[in-house]
């Protein structure tokens, strides 16, 4: 049984061409899944189906093997939490602490449980010092962390992040990357995210879906997708810097193993240097 699955999912906004066309998507437990593609590819529309914000025009969405319906959508939203690209879309309480508490409070939890969850979410995101601040006076990166904390306080099993690095400074991106990478192993969560920054995908994902014009045009591991520069070019994406550099060196006659992450690239360069010494 898959945690999240779509079967031939199609969505047509009123009066428009299909935003999604026959999308088949699977998310397994404790996985990190990247959805990449150009603007307008349908990534955000796909994500809004995962917890019933949007309803399919045709096809279906299943969570834990059960179709998402009006009757079970409340339970689905406990299980699948979505953080939107713009944190202002989901931050509205007078203080950060109240905002993070909003979700678990609306689950009907008692005060002690809500307080425990809020404290845990604030700690996990490293924003305990912001608890009394007014959310709309925060920086973009701080707002992003508050929005994520508000979803995590509901303890979902699937966390969906729509362009999570948008508006973050370089240190914010590094912090977010480290946070996302801990969630599957430390907390048993599945993370699904979209991004335009292909250089981050190898560091943050185990599996990739490539979308274009409302369709999934390719899927595979990091190695499988980034070994296809023609696919990336066709979908107006670029090959990440690390494999691009290594491929260039290989074409120049340097005996170096392909790598996609910083850690693997470091090892490849050291091995190549050792062999030449």
UniProtKB/TrEMBL annotation:
Q: Which SMART domains match?
A: AAA
- One GO cellular component term: ATP-binding cassette (ABC) transporter complex
Say where the protein is mainly found. membrane
User: From the UniProt record, which GO molecular function terms apply?
Assistant: ATP binding; ATP hydrolysis activity; ATPase-coupled transmembrane transporter activity
Cite the Pfam families for this sequence: ABC_tran (PF00005)
Mind listing the GO biological process terms from this record? cobalt ion transport
What functional role does this protein have? Answer: Part of an ABC transporter complex. Responsible for energy coupling to the transport system. Probably part of an ABC transporter complex. Responsible for energy coupling to the transport system.
| Record family assignment | Belongs to the ABC transporter superfamily.
PANTHER family attached here? ENERGY-COUPLING FACTOR TRANSPORTER ATP-BINDING PROTEIN ECFA1, HEAVY METAL TRANSPORTER
* NCBIfam families listed in its UniProt record: cbiO, PRK13652.1
State the name under which the record lists this protein: ABC transporter ATP-binding protein
């Amino acid at each position: 049984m898959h945690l999240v699955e779509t079967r031939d999912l199609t969505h047509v906004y009123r009066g428009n061409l299909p935003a999604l066309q026959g999308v088949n998507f699977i998310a397994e437990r404790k996985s990190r899944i990247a959805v990449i593609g150009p603007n307008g590819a349908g990534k955000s529309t796909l994500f809004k189906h995962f917890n019933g914000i949007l309803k399919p025009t045709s096809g279906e969405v299943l969570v834990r093997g059960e179709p998402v319906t009006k009757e079970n959508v409340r339970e689905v939203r406990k299980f699948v939490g979505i953080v939107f690209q713009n944190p202002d879309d989901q931050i509205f309480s007078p203080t950060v602490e109240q905002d993070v508490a909003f979700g678990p409070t609306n689950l009907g939890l008692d005060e002690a449980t809500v307080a425990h969850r809020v404290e845990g979410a604030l700690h996990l995101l490293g924003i305990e010092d912001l608890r009394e601040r007014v959310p709309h006076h925060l920086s973009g990166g701080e707002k992003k962390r508050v929005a994520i904390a508000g979803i995590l306080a509901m303890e979902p099993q699937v966390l969906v992040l729509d362009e999570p690095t948008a508006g973050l400074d370089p240190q914010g991106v590094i912090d977010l990357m480290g946070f996302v990478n801990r969630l599957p192993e430390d907390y048993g969560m599945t993370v699904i995210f979209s991004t335009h920054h292909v250089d981050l995908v190898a560091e943050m994902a185990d599996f990739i879906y490539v979308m274009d014009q409302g369709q999934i045009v390719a899927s595979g591991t990091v190695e499988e997708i980034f070994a296809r520069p023609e696919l990336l070019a066709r979908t107006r994406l670029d090959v990440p810097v690390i494999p691009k550099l290594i491929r260039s060196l290989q074409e120049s006659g340097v005996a170096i193993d392909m790598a996609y992450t910083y850690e693997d690239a470091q090892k490849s360069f050291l091995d190549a240097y050792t062999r030449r010494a």
